[in-house]
Amino acid sequence: MKKIVVLFMVILMTFSFVSCTNDTKQEETAANVEPNQENTEGKSEDVNMTIAVNAEIISLDPHNLSDTLSGSAADTMYESLYDYKLDMSLEPVLATGYSVSEDGLEYTFNIREGVTFHDGTELNAEAVKYNFDRVMDEEKNLRRRRNFLYVNSTEVIDEYTILIKLDSPFAPMINRIASLSVISPTALEEYGDQGILTNPVGTGPYTFEEWTPGDKMVVRANPNYWKEGPKIDTLTFKPVTENGARIAMLQTGEADYIYPMPTEQVKTVESDENIKVIEGPSTIARFTFLNMTKDIFSDVKVRQAINHAINKEAYAKVVKSGYAVPLTSHVPTTIEYQSPQPEYEYNVEKAKELMKEAGYPDGFATHIWAPNDTENMKGMQFISQQLAEIGIDVEVIPMEEGTLSDSIYSPQTPEESEVNMWYVSWSAFDIDGATTRLFHSSNIPPTSPNVSYYMSDEADKLMDAGATEVDPVKRAEIYAELQEVIWNDAPWIFLGSDVLLSAKRATTEGIFVDPSGGIIATEASTTK
Amino acid sequence: MKQYVLKRLLNIIPIMLVVSIIVFMFIHLIPGDPARIVAGQKATLEEIEIMREKLGLNDPYIVQYKNFMVGVFSGNWGTSIKSNLPVWNVIVPRIKPTLILAIFSIIWSVVAGISMGVISAIKRGKLIDYIVMVGATSGISVPLFWLGLMLMQIFSVKLGWFPTTGVDSFSSYVLPSITLGAGITAMIARYTRSSMIEILKENYIRTSRAKGLHEFMVINKHALRNSLVDVITIVGLQFGFLLAGSVLVETVFAIPGLGRLLIDSILFRDYTVVQTVLLIFTFQFIIINLIVDVLYGIANPKIRYE
After folding, report:
1. A458 touches chain B (CB under 8 A)
2. Residue B246 pLDDT more than 50?
3. Which CATH superfamily is domain A79-203 in?
4. Which positions make up the signal peptide (chain A) (predicted)?
């Protein structure tokens, strides 16, 4: 025993005496091997592309996910009856068309013929019904169930026709249908609800190759895709949370596309001709809830004064590095039925005047909540500084996210609620999703995030009417009126809507980021 | 010695039980409702209620703890709240990257750290001593993510020697382990140096030199070996920390390791994963401590076990 230890020590020492100089040599040899490896990899016939993203893929079950990135990853393999195009309009995918009954209660969809799932199963009305039944199952409580609460039943009419019956008319139904990806029923039977997570089988442009939770997901081009698909062999989604590392990957060409592109680093890559930065509009609204049950925010004049006291251009510059546009309604312009309102121009004098009229000539003290990361801190500090100009003393209170969520949702009544201002963002596909949860009086905490405790009969009526009106022209009128009411009542500080930044290698084609932040790579190709 | 090890191994059981209670209490006492966080901002109240019921979050703490322990002993560690995958499927792929990173880092830190320490102890007060110690101090003070990003810019982007991120080949581990080991190298160098300096003043060193022993033997056989006890303590402790994963290095180099898993799971209030990961960490810390204690005796036979 003792001898072995001595031997070990001696080896260690001889090693260590030379190691100071040797250390670097070892690295060099290791380094020399590397480019060769890359060369051989490059010679293989596969064309591989990599998208580096800033978060992990949480789930690949398209019926049971709630984050955009997991949605993007699942969408490489799955498709729905209808889907959004880049401009947020809907196009038929696995359906060829649909019709709605006069009372708005029955939707009939024609299913595309000749489409097969990756496992060979044929797409037909039965398969679609199977998916509806799964997502609507209360027992399973999948996350997408919330989009189909109005659906009463589904019925197979013939091989390629399915009828969907609603309990009550629900105008955004077609938008919600778009959120239902169709999974192969055979695969669901075989793998079960948990197994399908790691064995995705859809009809999409890519088939599943591998996924290590927490690390990369690889998909391969589907040779039997029913329309024109990707012109590459494999596509990899790789989570790289550190901004600097994501940029480095793009610089070396290890990544062909990165999203999001960190706003503060745009200048560093601008001179690099191999890299192109892409800007696009978003469905993300950034705002601050003003709790209207608190005395200080109960007067509409105070809330309007606050909106006049905030310089939205400066907000975009200071907090979002210039990558935001002012909100012109409570929903961004990317949302259908958005109707722009007259702006709350930046005018400190007018704001002071309104504060005086409301009985607060010297302002008051309040506080603002948000998560404790850098960008949210910046946003809160900006609001605090701007409101100081009109005498409102805003204490910035950053919180860990779970704690914040508890503080918002555990109070059972408005009286118990302690929140004054909450700096937050919201993103939705349709105007109902971007409105009802945030403004309807039935959606105050703990039910939903109407944290302004905005309770207006007028707005409630309009929201209900908009959700059930099937005629698009009448619907547009209702929503225009609703947006005016909300805008004038100013239950929020209307701040801005994000501009989405992504970046690609100059050789990359066919990869896009849609306004909701989803990555679309159906027709990915590269000239590298 | 065998008896000692056996006794220590048996001790693990009560320790783990106590730790499991503490871990359980901590994660349930921090505010935040996993059902709401996992369901997302847009979830309906009904959806959250059903989820809470399903996850057993409405049960009294005692019942929840009992279920957790029953699960542990029956081998059913549960399902990750966040991803809906079995806990072990989430954790197991994370162990390898962290383990490789920890081993690489510790090897180069021990080799470089001890040599730097020995050299500067022998050349105490000379230029080389100052250079090494300045290097060591910077190694401790430099922020890990900065060092990581600098190395990445130089060796990956400019020179193209190593991949920027990931764990696809062994060369991917070079930059992360240099980054991770920098601080530990510095620490080992400083401990070795101070301990060597003390020992080189001892009488028996003078004796060995007086009897004409070669300087190499004096340093290696007598001085270094006696100064190793301190170093082993440091290495053991640091290795324990490394196995718990370095969140910063794992984040910078996009390494899917245990450290990042733990942080992400805490943010998500993914109770089942947090509990299991923390129990694993505790267990490996106990084992490493035991190994360190045994190594003491080998480095210094004067230490006896009872």
Report:
1. no
2. yes
3. Dipeptide-binding Protein; Domain 1 (3.90.76.10)
4. 1-21
